[in-house]
Design a protein that fits this description.
Blueprint lengths: L1 E2 L2 E7 L1 H18 L6 E5 L4 H8 L7 E9 L3 H4 L2 E5 L9 E9 L3 H11 L5 E9 L12 E5 L5 E2 L15 E4 L5
Parallel strand pairs: 3-4, 3-6, 6-7, 7-8
Antiparallel strand pairs: 1-2, 2-10, 4-5, 9-10
The protein binds guanosine-5'-monophosphate.
């Protein structure tokens, strides 16, 4: 499939994604039974993953959306500014952050620092994808959908220059044809 002149090929089909979601949800349901978790969905990229995952969560839980943007020089400072901030009622709760992908880890490290100010009881991370080779910050991801190579992916909520979030499967940039 071509998006903005770049060629992308399928990495995960809708069926494969559904299996990953089932596995992640089962682990979260088992680990957080009786803990009334509070899910924080990182907008925008995680919205499709979150909507699939959360519908497989069978234990009582809370949910909110957060959106943080990086400001100039973020790559070096690792600071984030709130667009939709963490709600104050996460205080004392067992938080599960729902993220699309942890790449360098800079965004997640900065967000974890921010989240600490809101005094949650515990914090876990559920990320659909992780790119271990790209990691520049040590970030422990508790629930990983799939570890991928250091290549650009698109679809299932993730965009390329504003396009492709609606693609239901996960695509990867086909470097051989660029
Ligand atoms: P990090 O701070 O970990 O480097 O970056 C995390 C954010 O970068 C993700 O939430 C995502 O929005 C974006 N990102 C990282 N890798 C990819 C990728 O391969 N494809 C897309 N579409 N976004 C990515």
């Amino acid at each position: 499939m071509k998006v903005k002149g770049r060629n992308f090929v399928e990495m995960l089909s809708e069926e494969e994604i559904a299996k990953i979601i089932d596995r992640m949800a089962s682990a979260i349901n088992a680990d957080l039974e009786g803990k009334n978790p509070y899910f924080l969905v990182m907008m925008n990229g995680a919205f499709i993953f979150a909507s699939d995952l959360l519908r497989k969560i069978t234990i009582p839980c809370g949910l909110a959306f957060v959106r943080y943007s990086s400001y100039e020089g973020m790559k070096t400072t690792g600071k984030v500014v709130p667009v939709i901030p963490v709600p104050a009622d996460v205080k004392g709760r067992n938080v599960v952050i729902i993220e699309d992908i942890v790449d360098t880890g800079i965004t997640m490290e900065a967000f974890l620092k921010e989240l600490k100010n809101f005094s949650p009881e515990s914090v876990r991370i559920a990320s659909f994808l992780t790119k271990p080779e790209a990691r520049q910050r040590e970030v422990l991801v508790d629930y990983v959908g799939k570890e991928i190579e250091n290549k650009f992916v698109l679809g299932y909520g993730l965009d390329y220059d504003g396009l492709g979030r609606n693609i239901p499967s996960l695509l990867v940039l086909d470097e051989s044809t660029q």
